[in-house]
Amino acid sequence: MAYRVGVDIGGTFTDFCAFNDETNAIHILKVLSAPENPGSEVMHGIRELHSRYGIEAADINYFTHGTTVGVNTVIQRKGIRLCLFVTENFADVLEVARLKMPDPYNLLSSRPQPLVNRERVLEIRERVRSDGGIEEEPDEESIRTALVRAKGMGAEGIVVALINSYRNPDNEHKVKNFIRGEDPELPVFCSADVWPIIREYERTTTAVVHGYVQPRVSYYLSSLERALSEVGVPALPQVTKSNGGIMSAESGREDCVQMLLSGTAAGVIGASYISSLSGFTNTMSLDIGGTSADVAFIRNALPQYGVGEVIGDFPIYVPSVAVTSIGAGGGSIAWVDDLGVLRVGPESAGSTPGPACYGRGGERPTTTDAFAILGYIGQFDIGYSAIDVDVEKSRSAMDPITKRLELSVEETAQAIIDISVSGMYMEVSKLISRYAIDPREFVMQAFGGAGPMMGCFLAKELGLGKVIVPSTPGVLSALGGLIADIKNDFISTVFLELAESEIAAIQNGFAHLKKQAVTWLHQEQGYSGEFRLIYAGDMRYRGQAFELETTLNWDDIEAGSIRELAESFHLEHEKVYEHCDREAPVQIVNLRLVIVGESPKPVFTRREPVHKLAESQGIVDVFISGTLEKVPLYQREHMSPGDTLDGPAVVAQSDCTTCVPPDISGQVDGYGNLILTVHTL
Fold it and tell me: Residue 22: what pLDDT?
């Protein structure tokens, strides 16, 4: 037997999806994550796969995984203490940012505190001109002074982001080499090595986020490799990337900015696959784990891509699946601020100690505890018997808050859920406005350990008419990693007029990127199969402040057809802004190339639905709108295509629980997806 295994390592649970190449059988599993001992959850999971399904470690010939360790580090601000070295007189690059209000609907809003505060931004005397010429080499005395100050402030790493380094990184490298000579053990990150893009803020903030998480990500990947070796897995581990592809763990160790949205992107890839199976090709994916809720929009069963995606409070400018992470999850801790206002998150209980109801030492109430108190969870095993829900521990943890608010424990639990849903509603509403989306044209796809638990409540608030709960929603991100292709992005800043005189430079630029891409795919990733190349350019009309990424046809590039290349941009501009100017001169700022090596995909068999009422497995007591009601309990494993149900109801399965409020009905489709319809819109 040969197995391909996809794993998603979250803050609370680690999910496994094992695919048998010979039989097309899929086996799933959940175990508790162990952030304090990275890799141990993988060892535990591999042994459980053998215990439950007879899968031998030696038969695992392909292993890929996604992780939220990077995004969770940023959301919870638990990265290393950084100092930032910049060109003299450019110390305000992170503070100034783009001078945009973070919330245009709130006049009192303020930009978040940068990951590197102002006092830890230190200046270096040097200068690179906009054409890449060296006007002044780095002054060693200014570097030494900055380094002494940085060490005095307890710096655990240095980010070097100098003006115009995207054109010529030599000065950044000289600063890095000087620091390495003074302190070989101090991590140093150059912005031009992380992502060499034009514009100082975008390049600097991407490098800062990279440096902030890199030691933790690197440690985690090393621990994972050791764990796989110890349990006898022969496959070299792959990691999912922010762009929805995969790369080797060795590449991820040095290029961790490319995997910051690793787990979240894998979830979107899995969701797009389910979209194509279900027939609902326009969906909003809602992936809620223990720490964060990740939201993305899928059009025509394809994920949307972009740059500048927000991680916590900060944008990153590497190509990524267009997904937004919100600091709200099943493990988000409820607390009361100094003004007596109930708040939820962003701090998470994680897996250790976890929500109070897990019985692992948690003493602070979480969103999961609120659902346990109201009766929605705890009637069935959680995480394949990894957790026994103790409702009394939830009530005890909730007690200090109930006394402070002078509410009953059930009222407090309901308030926590309402606040969690409200916070998600606010952030998702911003996305809907940003993408000019009509919610009536989309359905929600709820997955992750807490997505089906909270999805229907959010859908009702947003005005979405349907909610899809996949057959294995708790491990969909693991499935997404399993089906993801080997993929990487390459970029080169050229800043050229789109004219006949520059076509040779454009062709040569793409040829150079293609050489880099093929080398990466064959030599670094060990891939020998067929591959695809996707060409694009960041283009604009002369005088515009920002560019639009425009997909380009290789035949047009090869033929030097300026007219066709310009027309591609005009059409993209018209699609985004509803107008274009075919007489205006066009500039191409960046050349982009994506290389894709396709992986085999599992085949799911559709069963013909037989319409009948689903068989209830019992009755449970659930508080709904302050009233204790008798609610049917369904076991997902016993439901078949065509089965129907009406809310209120609880649907339990080993990887998650689906909460079905009143005025919602459900039906299982031919692929086992639970399609829930909202009737109160």
Answer: 82
Are 292 and 328 in contact, with CB atoms under 8 Å apart? yes
Q: Which two tokens stand for residue 602?
A: 């599992």
- Kind of pairing between the strands at 627-635 and 618-624: antiparallel
pLDDT tens digit string along 203-214? 999 999 999 999
The predicted-structure confidence for 552-599, as pLDDT tens digits, reads as follows: 999 999 999 999 999 999 999 998 888 999 999 999 999 999 999 988
- Residue matched to tokens 């270096």: 124
Instruction: Average the pLDDT over each of 184-188, 212-216, 551-555, 667-671 and give the range with the smallest value.
Output: 212-216
Distance between CA atoms of 468 and 88, rounded to whole angstroms?
A: 54
Handedness of CA 376, 380, 386, 389 (dihedral sign): positive
pLDDT at 384 over 70: no
Quick check: 194 and 207 in contact, CB under 8 A? yes
Q: For residues 113 and 94, is the Cβ–Cβ distance under 8 A?
A: no
Rounded to whole angstroms, how far apart are CA atoms 359 and 361?
A: 6
- Torsion, Cα 590 554 276 676, to 10 degrees, reads 30
Residue carrying structure tokens 């602070």: 364
User: How far is Cα 380 from Cα 656, in angstroms, rounded to an integer?
Assistant: 10
Query: Collapsing DSSP states into helix, strand and coil, what is residue 650?
Result: strand
pLDDT at 310 over 80: no
- Minimal CA–CA distance to 6: which of 269, 230, 222, 250? 269
Helix ranges (DSSP H) in 232-298: 249-254, 262-278
Residue 418 and residue 344 in contact, taking contact as beta carbons nearer than 8 Å: no
Q: What is the pLDDT of residues 8-63, one digit of tens each?
A: 887 677 889 898 888 878 888 888 877 777 788 889 899 999 999 999 999 999 89
Residue entry with tokens 């491990």 = 475
pLDDT tens digits along 157-186? 999 999 999 999 999 999 999 999 999 999
All domains in the chain, ordered by first residue: 81-186 (no CATH), 486-597 (3.30.1490), 612-678 (no CATH)
Tell me, what's the pLDDT at 260?
83
Q: What is the pLDDT of residue 205?
A: 93
Alpha helices in 317-469 (DSSP H): 367-374, 391-405, 409-434, 451-462
Q: Please tell me the distance from the alpha carbon of residue 667 to that of residue 52, in angstroms, as a whole number.
A: 30
Between the CA atoms of 27, 59, 8 and 452, what dihedral angle is there, to the nearest 10 degrees? 0
Nearest C-alpha neighbor of 43 from the set 1, 70, 72, 9: 9
Q: Please name the amino acid found at residue 380.
A: F
- Which residues contact residue 143 at a Cβ distance below 8 angstroms, ignoring those fewer than 6 apart? 85, 124, 175, 178, 179
Residue from 190, 222, 225, 210 nearest 261 by CA: 210
Check residue 186 and report its DSSP letter: S
Per DSSP (E only), the strands in 502-626 are 531-541, 548-552, 586-597, 612-613, 618-624
Within its chain, how far is the Cα of 635 from the centroid?
Answer: 30
Residue 573 pLDDT: 95
